[in-house]
Design brief:
Elements lengths: L2 H6 L10 E9 L2 H13 L4 E5 L7 H5 L6 H26 L16 H23 L20 E6 L7 H10 L4 E8 L1
Antiparallel strand pairs: 1-3, 1-4, 2-3
Length: 190
């Protein structure tokens, strides 16, 4: 069994986490990083992650990342907020009717501000909660950056070895051709 096969082997279901073997390459320019991503994707390598100090236009498309489902979470939670606001206000009219100047009890236009506010509140809170859950972010979690300086002036590209047929030499060659300064093979726990 080769090193990459042993490292990517899943362990028993006793809670031991899977070990990942990754290639981490660093770049000084965003265009070199984009060229490396495109070259790796053309050779059918899967990009695990890219770290950059600022957003890079069209990087998600170049990496082959599909569209996020987070807007659906926002829409569903916003709909629940809207229904909660409307039902709460109609229930209040039924439970505690007031006659104020002969106005009708179910003045729906008066319900718009509260319903809107609850829609935004539920949608916003659910979106943040879903993002934190999906990204496994929680208070006190230590940061795990692959390369020092990646938040200041360095770019990092991480390619994960998912199968035993992963061609490490070809990946290294593509990264070097596209301007990688350093290429390091590292074992990480998930």
């Amino acid at each position: 069994m080769t090193m990459s096969q042993a490292a990517t082997k899943r362990y028993s279901s006793r809670g031991v986490r899977m070990v990942k073997v990754v290639l981490i390459s660093t770049f000084t320019r965003a265009d070199a990083l984009m060229n490396a991503v495109r070259a790796l994707r053309a050779e059918r390598f899967r990009i695990f992650d890219v770290y950059a100090p600022y957003p890079i236009h069209n990087l998600d498309r170049a990496m082959g990342i599909r569209r996020s489902r987070l807007p659906w979470v926002t829409a569903m939670a916003g709909s629940v907020g809207l229904l909660t606001g409307l039902l709460l206000q109609f229930y209040t009219i039924i439970d505690w009717p007031l006659n104020i100047g002969g106005k009708p009890d179910n003045s729906t236009l008066a319900f718009v501000p509260i319903s809107f506010e609850l829609t935004v509140l539920f949608g916003g809170l659910a979106t943040v909660a879903a993002l934190f859950l999906r990204a496994r972010l929680y208070p006190g979690r230590p940061e795990r950056l692959p390369v020092a300086g990646v938040t200041n002036d360095a770019f990092a590209l991480v390619v994960r070895q998912r199968d035993p047929h992963f061609d490490t030499q070809r990946a290294r060659q593509l990264l070097e051709e596209n301007g990688a300064l350093e290429i390091e093979e590292r074992t990480m726990k998930s």
